What does this fold into?
Amino acid sequence: MTTRFFGAAVKRNEDKKLLTGQALFIDDVELPGMLHAAFLRSQVAHARVKGIDPSKALKRDGVIAVYTAADLGAYWQSGPLLVPPPPVPGLVFNLRTHVPLARDTVRYAGEPLAIVVAESRYIAEDALDDIAVDLEILPAVVDLEKALDKDAIPVHGDLGTNIAAHVHQTKGNYRSVAAQADLILKRRFRYEHGMSSPIETRGIVAQWNARAQHMTVWDTTQAPVFVRNGLAGALGLGERQVRVIAPFVGGGFGPKIMMLYPEEAMLPWISMRLNRPVKWIEDRFEHFVATTHERGQIHDAEIALTRDGRILGVKDVFLHDNGAYNPYGLTVPINSQCTLLGPYVIPAYDSTFTSVFTNLPIVTPYRGAGRQHGVFVIERLLDLAAHELDIDPAEIRRRNLIPSDAFPYRNEIIYQDFQPLEYDSGNYEPVLDKALEAIGYADFVAEQPRLRAQGRYVGIGVACYVEGTGIGPYEGAKVRVQANGKVSVATGIGTQGQGHFTSFAQIVADQLGVDVTDVEIVTGDTDQFYWGAGTFASRGAVVAGNAVNEASRAVRKKALKLASDAFECAEEDLVLADGKVSIIGIPEKFIRLGELAQRANPMRGAVKPGTEPGLESTQYFGPPSGSTANGVHAAIIEMDPLTFELKILKYVVVHDCGTVINPMILAGQIHGGVAQGIGNAFYEKLSFDEHGQLLNASLADYLLPTALEVPRMQLDHTTTPSPLNPLGIKGAGEAGAIPVGPLFAQAIENALGLKQNGVELLEIPLSPSRLFELIRKGSKA
Ligand code: MCN
It folds into this structure.
């Protein structure tokens, strides 16, 4: 195989469609006779539902139906547990999943109570006001710590506790290493709630075809196969009777994996009842209150070190805000627990978390999926230790990096994929070196006093991380050469902007010797590919990419076999390039791939035993466990000492995600991740009051970074291939977002000389006003 496209910065195949408005998004789906739905959502966070009276709404012109939980009969059931908890010894796990419409109790402001179906969305929205709702308001459980008080009201009355899960994992013996330590530092770290803000909100169109007894659902989901299976089960249909299509999706970032969201459960059910297509497009306010959130953790963490800055152990006890339901099991907090260990040798680790039910929107993964919390804790602990021990922050990191000859590196505790946390491969020190070199670390340290003397508050930060990526269970791909020579490929994952249409095409193009633009990728249509899990956990490139590779290899083998039969020569004498198979040294002797595809589907003659018709193959790939990517971010920032406005002067990312398929797509992934990381670190905070009301549920109040706040980045890579998949790939989609919080905290402290004044930044997000408060409080202390 000659490599032409794999590893090259190939322009994205999908962009022409996207840029010329030809890409189909959910709201482009228009069907004859289509109805529109609007949801009545609870305005309070915790209440008993005494009654819902839709009679006035039903009288409004254009209203077709109104449904409440009482109308759902046996269809009213709790949603599935999406990710079962891994087998952690001593696990406590209380499962309470979301319901299609609240029946007896509402548990967060935004939870749906009723749905109006009307001839237009306008009518449906107006009719929401006609519905009379009688709620007995209950005190809301909002404070993570108070939720665990003995007399706290339980979010789920039948449970009698707000503990959703309790997990204790250990490596080594923290207590004995702490007894040997020269320095022990203990701090409380806090991460506030945030959310993803995709350009496209969620949306669903459901169309029941009574004649064919078939359901088609267009859905902004990241996991179409799961949604198909979940819906089939709930609706009492066979999986073949349900087709889920996730067309172009304008960003997913994690929350669009969730299923079955109440809206996802309701629309197909309604379409079946009314035998008409129904559409619902989430508005931005709904996205704030009804799509899942992330963050919300409090860590009490402790690090034990030797005098020369070597880590002996870390102890961490943390609370994780789960929101009102926990369909994701332990995914987010266990990611935090595992990712805290970072790229460092930490001989002893004692980590306990309690996942807590609160009357807040459900918490599920959002780009990074809890990893950023763990990275924040360890990176901040190292900064504090560096200050205490008078060691340079970059140097203390270097001293603790796992050496390159220690891989695979076993961390003993169990990861979210049920496997022991083992780093498959890595070479961390060159990544740190490159980042320090690129940011000009030594020069900056020398120059900083001069800048300070000029009255400029310029600071530097360096943060490291590892990221578990590419987890199983598996993905598959069908690769098929068509008679016109073009190659069609289908996989079961969905795509929300990650460039799969190009990066997967690059893999195929090289295997089959065709141009990358001649490979058409279909993702996210369960009729095109039946099996799969979905796009999450930075697994698309590893898992689907390798499945695409395996299927392409099989097709290549078939093509060479067919051609060798036709030419009556050995396969080794053939070359597959430029869309044809030719004999080496006799280029005029060739057969086009399209012709081979036709020959593989003969009108006469038997298909030989052991062979299949068609030039196609379906293959699957499942990694034994996740592959571990790593990286270092470094930044130089300038603070205005009066307004605490922050300017990023330089931002460097050095990253190792194994073999790279497309460096340009990868750069885009890093840029997007860093942009969201900057939002997490400095701008975005969901503010709830004590009643569980979201106070800033609009893009005017919830501050997203814009192009002005996101700097140009200098990117570099090292390549340590993963031994766990044939292509050597590790995932990259979330990496950019993960270390930005501690990087900002470190750089701001450094710029303002905060530690010298006894002010420590131990929380995320920071913001000018929060810095003002912290510094005022610190200087008074
Ligand atoms: N890639 C590569 N070489 C590698 C690794 C990745 O060229 N060594 C390419 C891949 O081929 C793919 C892209 O980078 O085109 C991302 O690959 P991967 O890291 O496998 O991530 P996934 O495909 O599984 O995508 C999911 C990941 C996650 S978990 C979130 S959250 C996220 C992200 O991707 N959401 C995104 N990136 C996003 N990008 C956009 N535009 N929109 C989202 O919703």
About this structure: The pocket of pterin cytosine dinucleotide is lined by residues 251-254, 367, 496-500, 503, 535-542, 545, 657-662, 665-666, 669, 672, 729-734 (CB under 6 Å).
